Structure formats: C-alpha cells, structure tokens
C-alpha cells in the first residue's frame, strides 16, 4: 500500500513543497505526475494573494508541473468567495491588494473600489504598493461597519533579501487602527483548504506542506490528514515537539514518499 492509495486528492502547498524560489524541488514534478496517474485530483494551494491563478499556473508550467488552471487554488479566490457569501451581489468592495485580487472580486459579481465611499466590505491581500493612504481608506470603511476579509495573515514574506513584511503585518496595522479583526481565508484558517477540497470533489484529501504554522495547522483545523515534507521551513523535531493533536499525520523528507510502500 502507498500513501497515494489512501487518498483521493492532494492539496499541495507551493514554496518549500513543490518548488523553492524559481526551481522545482528535486523529484516533485515526477511525484505529482505519479499522483495524477494514480487518479488523484491535484490542487496547488497557496496563501499568495498577489498573483492571479493564471500567473501561478504559468510559473508551475515553467518548472515542470503543467497544471490545469482549475488546479490552482489561491487565498484571493477563497477570500472573494467568502465575501460573495456575506454581501449581496453588486455590493461595492474596497480592495487592498493587487489587480489580481480586484479581478477575483469582479468575477464574483461584486464591484471593486479603492476608496471607502459606499464600500460595504473590505478585502485585504498583499500588494507592495499598499501605503498609508490605502490603509486609511480601509480604516474608514471598517470603522463604518464594513465586512472585512483578509486573504491571509502571514506576518512575513520570504524573498531573496530575507524575510520582509507580509500581508499579516499590514492586517495587524489595520487591526490596531480599527479595534476589529478580519475573517481569514488562507491557511491556517479553513476556507481555502475547504474550497480546494470541494473543487476537487475530494472525500479523502491529503494536505501537503512544509510549514507547521500554516499548512499543518490548517489541515488540523479542517479535520484533514496532512504530510509534512522537510524540503522547506519546519523540521521533524519541531513537529514531534507539538501536542499529538497538532502534529502532521505523516512526515517525510520529500514528495517521493507518496509512491513509496507504507505499512498499515
């Protein structure tokens, strides 16, 4: 029996799991191809809300994965879907984020704006262009009672220059200014993983990632099995130091374990 035989879908994290920077993790494209060949649904699940699904798919194609567009699940998609369930169609939504996030809002029948005037909701993702003026508009809207959804609350963003402020750092700034807390779409919150599993038609999904605080915690929160791969941030020792209910279901050096014979 292999791990692949136990599940009907893989919900795969990206950076640190299937690629590092601009290169695929060795063996990862082959492992994903083997899962597809075994009949598993594949979803590439990312907290990144800055890039469109097409941009994510294009990058994955360049490094050997060749995903279909509907195999990409982003926190921007999950957050926009959350908003569409919370406010009426045609509602005006203040967007803090890139044009990719604007497009996700528009695709769900909502009207994106960059000012607080008339906004009944705020959706927040990471954009390197977000400054005081943008945060001030969001502050006005949230203080006036707008529904607030954050794509993710990752405090830092890994870059070639080291860790830089992530979306969660700007979310915290707005929290401090409004005394409010947003609803959250991305890992470790459950909406992104639940929507990815639903889109895959999965009954027995396996969440695969390299971070205990987002990927594995998200799987635990969603009641899904998980695989921690040691190709990114977290270590086996860190995983085993957690309370049992917070540990990953499986731990492996890399994605090659998916096709390996396992006991049980």
From TrEMBL:
Cited InterPro entries: HAD-like_sf (IPR036412), HAD-SF_hydro_IIA (IPR006357), HAD_sf (IPR023214)
List of residues binding Mg(2+): 13, 15, 210
Annotated binding of substrate, by residue: 187
Gene Ontology, cellular component aspect: cytoplasm
Matches recorded under Pfam families: Hydrolase_6 (PF13344), Hydrolase_like (PF13242)
Key words of the record: Magnesium, Metal-binding
Active site feature: 13, 15
UniProt cofactor note: Divalent metal ions. Mg(2+) is the most effective.
Sequence similarity: Belongs to the HAD-like hydrolase superfamily.
Protein name: Haloacid dehalogenase
Species this chain originates from: Actinosynnema pretiosum
């Amino acid at each position: 029996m292999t791990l692949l035989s136990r599940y009907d879908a893989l919900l795969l994290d990206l950076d640190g799991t299937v690629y590092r920077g601009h290169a695929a993790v060795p063996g990862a494209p082959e492992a994903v191809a083997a899962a597809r060949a075994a009949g598993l649904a594949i979803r590439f699940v990312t907290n990144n809300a800055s890039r469109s699904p097409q941009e994510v798919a294009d990058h994955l194609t360049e490094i050997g994965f060749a995903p279909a567009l509907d195999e990409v699940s982003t926190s921007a998609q999950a957050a926009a879907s959350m908003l569409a369930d919370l406010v009426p169609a045609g509602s005006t939504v203040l967007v803090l984020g890139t044009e990719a996030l604007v497009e996700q809002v528009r695709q769900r029948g909502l009207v994106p704006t960059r000012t607080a005037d008339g906004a009944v909701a705020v959706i927040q993702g990471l954009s390197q262009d977000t400054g005081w003026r943008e945060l001030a508009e969001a502050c006005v809207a949230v203080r006036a009672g707008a529904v607030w959804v954050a794509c993710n609350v990752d405090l830092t963003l890994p870059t070639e220059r080291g860790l830089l402020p992530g979306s969660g750092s700007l979310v915290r700034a707005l929290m401090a200014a409004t005394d409010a807390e947003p609803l959250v779409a991305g890992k470790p919150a459950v909406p992104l993983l639940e929507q990815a599993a639903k889109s895959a038609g999965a009954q027995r999904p396996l969440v695969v990632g390299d971070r205990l605080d987002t990927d594995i915690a998200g799987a635990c929160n969603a009641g899904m099995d998980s695989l921690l791969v040691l190709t990114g941030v977290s270590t086996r020792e860190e995983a085993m130091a957690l309370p049992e209910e917070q540990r990953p279901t499986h731990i492996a050096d890399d994605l090659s374990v998916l096709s390996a014979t396992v006991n049980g």
